[in-house]
Amino acid sequence: MTIDKQALREEFRFMQVHYSDPADRARQVIYIAAEALLDELDKKQQYIKLRDQENEDIALTVGKLRVELEHYKSREERVTKLVLDNSTSWDVLYEKLEAAERRIAEQSAIVAAAEKLVRCKGRYHSELNYRALAKLFGVITPDLPPLEYENVHYTDAAEVEISALRQRIQELEARVIVLPQRLSPEGYHIDEAYMVDDTDGEYLDRDAVIYAVRAAGIKVKGERDG
After folding, report:
1. Domain boundaries defined on the chain
2. Which three-class secondary structure state does DSSP give residue 14?
3. Could you give the residue ranges of the DSSP H alpha helices within 20-177?
4. How far is residue 174's CA from residue 112's CA, in Å, rounded to a whole number?
5. Closest by CA position to 118, among listed 71, 72, 155
6. Does residue 178 contact residue 165 with C-beta atoms inside 8 Å?
7. CB 166: neighbour CB atoms within 10 A?
8. CA angle at residue 192 from 190 to 194, to 5 degrees?
9. 25-39, 121-135, 159-173: lowest mean pLDDT where?
10. By the 8 A CB rule, do 138 and 165 touch?
């Protein structure tokens, strides 16, 4: 049931005028109080309307916050998955790099041992060691004199060998791996995720790293040639 407050106000004011005689003061007070109650009712209804609007705004804000929360949760899950997927491949690459460094160190040790071998007293063994080691390390050797000649200067041959092997060591030590541009993940959805250049990024492109390793003259075992 709807109350016609405007009609009631007009009725109350009419009755206040109608009962303006002092003898009717009690009735006049009743109608004045009734009009005051109508004013208070208006204020309460306006307050309720205002609170309803505030509650509606709060509910809308909470809804938006929930959507944003779900969005960030989803993004965090995508980034975590991306990190986990990349961490496995990077572990493999780093293991390959460490293995390559170990091989270089082993080669240096072998070359050091070779320098001692070529100084052995027996000429026959010395030449065989020289030729075998030169072939092993890919060193271009000068022609050696026939074995039947006894007046060969072994010192010169040994110096040539040592010089060639040292040159090979310098070439191995001079290898430098230039890592590619660092990357960071971007994108709000898993199907939109992509990597962008970032100086402080935590990721590297796998193919670019393999290319850099090969560019330094180091083979990457198990990878197809690009």
Report:
1. 5-68
2. helix
3. 25-117, 123-137, 154-173
4. 17
5. 155
6. no
7. 13
8. 100
9. 121-135
10. no
**Stronger pLDDT, 90 or 220, i.e. the higher one:** 220
Output the CA angle 131-137-140, nearest 5 degrees.
60
Q: Give me the residues paired with residue 150 across strands.
A: none
Global pTM?
Answer: 0.30
Q: Which two tokens stand for residue 21?
A: 């005689």
Higher pLDDT, 128 or 152: 128
- Give the up-direction half-sphere exposure of residue 61: CA atoms within 13 A in the CB hemisphere: 6
d(C-alpha 88, C-alpha 193), whole Å = 19
User: Is the pLDDT assigned to residue 80 strictly greater than 80?
Assistant: no
Q: Give kind and range of the element (H or E) at residue 182.
A: none
Length of the chain, in residues: 226
What is the distance between the alpha carbons of residues 165 and 169, in angstroms, rounded to a whole number? 6
Q: pLDDT: is 48 or 73 the higher one? A: 48
CB 141 within 8 A of CB 134: yes
User: How large is the greatest C-alpha to C-alpha distance in the chain, in angstroms?
Assistant: 158
| Residue 53 Cα distances to 44, 57, 111, 188, angstroms | 14, 6, 85, 33
Residues 50-59: contacts with CB under 8 Å, at least 24 apart: none
Phi, psi of 15 (to 5 degrees): -70, -35
Q: Which residues contact 84 (CB under 8 A, 6 or more apart)?
A: none
Average pLDDT over residues 167-188: 81
The answer to whether 118 and 147 have CB atoms below 8 angstroms apart is no
Q: What is the DSSP letter of 143?
A: P
